[in-house]
Amino acid sequence: MFTWLNKQAVRSSEGFEVHFLNRWEAQYREGMRVRTIPIEPGSIAGRPAILFNKDVFESWDNSSIANSSSEQQRLLNNFVRALRFQGLETEY
């Protein structure tokens, strides 16, 4: 379940948040861990969309340790679910 924090951010009951910093960057947060995601606005079938590179979850901004492939997939799924809650399609 998601809750709006403001017009640019949502929080999941699972403990993560997605914030839009500006037109070109989003941020995924889990506790103290943060990942800044370069994004491009777009559209898919006439609907608003966010385009990004799925490999962005290879590591956290504040860590040099690589995430496992299963962790990367979990983070990607969380990010996509948060965007869809906001009415945005995704392409990665």
The topology string of helices and strands comes to EEEEEEEHE
Label the structural class: alpha+beta
> How many strand units?
8
Measured distance between first and last alpha carbons:
23 Å
What are the salient characteristics of this protein?
45% strand, 92 residues, 8 strands, alpha+beta, three-stranded mixed sheet, five-stranded antiparallel sheet
Written description of the protein model:
This protein has 92 residues and is of the alpha+beta class. It has one domain (2-91). It has one helix and eight strands, in the order E-E-E-E-E-E-E-H-E. The strands form two sheets. It has a five-stranded antiparallel β-sheet, covered by helices on one side. Strands 6-7-8 form a three-stranded mixed β-sheet, with helices on one face. The radius of gyration is 13 Å and the shape is globular. The relative contact order is 0.20. The mean pLDDT is 97.
Summarize the structure.
This protein has 92 residues and is α+β, with helices and mostly antiparallel strands. It has one helix spanning 69-85; strands spanning 2-6, 9-12, 16-22, 25-30, 33-38, 40-44, 47-51, 89-91.
